[in-house]
Amino acid sequence: MKANETLHPSLNEVQLGVWRIVYTRPASVVFNGRLPLGQLKKAHHYTRTYIIPFFRDIWLVLGAKLFLLFVSDQIWTGIRGALKLYLLNALMKEIEYSFIASRENGWAISRVLVIRLGCVCAEGMTRWLHDKYSPIMRTRIKLHFKKVIMRAHLRLDLQTYSNAANRPNIKGSRTWNVFHDLVRSTAVASSLLSHIALILELARGERGGFFFAIICVSKPIYMFITKDDMWSNKFIAYATNPNFLRSRDLLSLAIEQKYKQEVLSGSLEGYIMNEFDKANTALKRTSDEFPTEAYRASRSPFVGICTSLLGDLPLMYYAVNAIMSPNTLSISALAIHQQTAVSIHAAITRITHQGSSINKNLNHIKSLYDGLNVRNSIPDGKLPYPDSGSPTETGMAISVRDVSFQYPGPSGTRFALKNVSFDIAASSLVVIVGANGSGKSSLVNLLTKLHYPTSGTILVDGKPMNEYRSRDLRRGMALLTQDHVLFPISVGENIAIGDPDCEDGPKKYECIQAAARLGGATEVIQKLDQGLEDMTEREETLCSSPFPLPPGPLKEIAEKIERYTEFSGGEVQRLVASRTFMRISSGKVKLVVADEPTSAMDPEGELELFEALRKVQDGMTMIFITHRFGHLTKHADLILCLKDGELVELGAHRELIARDGEYSRLYNIQASAFAEDLLPVPGLDFSVPRSRSAFKFEPNLDSES
Ligand SMILES: Nc1ncnc2c1ncn2[C@@H]1O[C@H](COP(=O)(O)OP(=O)(O)OP(=O)(O)O)[C@@H](O)[C@H]1O
């Protein structure tokens, strides 16, 4: 936010040291004579749509017995404090009475003692039950909601998924905490109510007791009233001080690994330290404490002094009372009142904390259930693919009719594609070229139904794409991009997952080996300790003590557990390409799309991959995106040349060279750099450069044309 921007009337702002805090104004607490109907309606809607389904699901997962056990345990936890205080009060009174009256009072004391002991035993018993059954309940709830959340994530298409608001913003492990927190609110509420009941009960039995009770609860009430609104409302805090921001950036330059190489090679150590000192000197005495700390330091001492004085008020009252009219209040009453006041204070504090955590928890539940009901933005059809009308022996035929496309959300403000039309014949080899940002990837995202055109139509085998079942259509496609990654599973499964329907057995193993060969990954796998069984990177599994492990056998075990194989960018692309060949081996693929899948590969690997793909092309349409003009462009049946989201040229290589337009311009930029260095290579139907590190392109094409 800029300094001169005016603030919305619903917001307040305050500067604390280097931080600017903008927060929503607290809602008016003054009752204006009308029921806050809007709020009530909202609460009703929330309860019906989110809270009841959440608790119903948990009831079903836990079963009635465990559910009720948990809830009653929480209520008991809430009231047992007040009950114990009540019994303590009774006990102290009886003891006091026997002292003052110098009379034996054994029976009454024993009776109260036995009840209190029963209460303490019940407390121990419920704690044991809680410890025994909580892990069972926690596991059941977590597992159930993990599955629900996974399903909610998996069912969303890419276009819908890219909007973070459509994704459940909660982890399975968090659901237990949400449930626990919500039920704990009943414990806090019952604790507050039972302590209030206790203090009223105590007040009833003493002369002046009621006034004394009010004095005892004055501190928690005062703290509740003077509670700070800023942090309990929605707020943002952002650093505005340029010197603070600079010193923070310089710190990250010094300590973050990603900058290390450049800092070292540029000998920037001295510069960074000097600049850091300069920024800190310029910061002068402006506090860079975290906003909450800075706020605490900025508060007036008045509230703190009043709070402490109110805490001591019961003692003062008792002392004055003892001087003025002795014997009106008992010592035990003072102790119990004080203790009750402390408990009420604790309950009120917990209720205020609970308020913000309830809000957070309700938002988690909302995002969970909303996530389950989000409608995918890409329409799904009913037709199976390939349907009875599609030719079985040939690849996918595609027609793009006047398609324009704009990415959803704030980032997609301009059209990535504008009025694009073309036809791709079944089983043809198509290459898409164009400068960076010209719309190549966006186009294949539409052809593979990962995104959906803003306007226009795409026909697949003569029928609109959205008439087919998305799942079937995607099964008939294989997409290979430079961004594809290895999954956190074994290397073998990373390849096998290309054809998830392939049944385990020797045939599957052979298919994996063949796919690895075609993807150029055989050597990569041979280098691994456990071959196909090797694990790729995975989520951390090690849980160790918070102290750093000293060198020794324990550390060695920990290192072994954390070990996984790291692959270079080119090796990852070879393994991912193998996955695509595995997919192709399923026999269901009718369209292969490769979006610069060899960007990190060496020239030999790239050449082999393109050759392997062309060899298996039979019965499939293939679309390649490339910046490198050469083997692919020469053999392409159709080249689509994009510029600024528009299809500016289409045709075969020679036609486009002859046209002397955008394609020819891009081609000549590359060709001119290497044309003189090329020699024909025997055994290949096109020439490759003499040097393996040289950029490959197709020689003599101009002269041929
Ligand atoms: N997820 C996205 N959200 C919003 N805009 C996007 C998104 N992806 C791409 N764009 C925009 O769409 C336009 C076309 O991008 P696209 O990735 O299709 O180009 P490209 O030709 O594949 O580029 P490159 O050669 O660099 O891979 C660009 O202006 C880009 O900024």
UniProtKB/TrEMBL annotation:
Residues 398-669 form the ABC transporter domain. The keyword Nucleotide-binding applies. Pfam families: ABC_tran (PF00005). GO terms for molecular function: ABC-type oligopeptide transporter activity; ATP binding; ATP hydrolysis activity. Keywords: ATP-binding, Nucleotide-binding. It comes from the Eukaryota. InterPro entries: AAA+_ATPase (IPR003593), ABC_transporter-like_ATP-bd (IPR003439), P-loop_NTPase (IPR027417), Type_1_exporter (IPR039421). Gene3D superfamilies: P-loop containing nucleotide triphosphate hydrolases. PANTHER family: ATP-BINDING CASSETTE SUB-FAMILY B MEMBER 10, MITOCHONDRIAL, ATP-DEPENDENT PERMEASE MDL1, MITOCHONDRIAL. This is ABC transporter domain-containing protein. It comes from Meripilus lineatus.
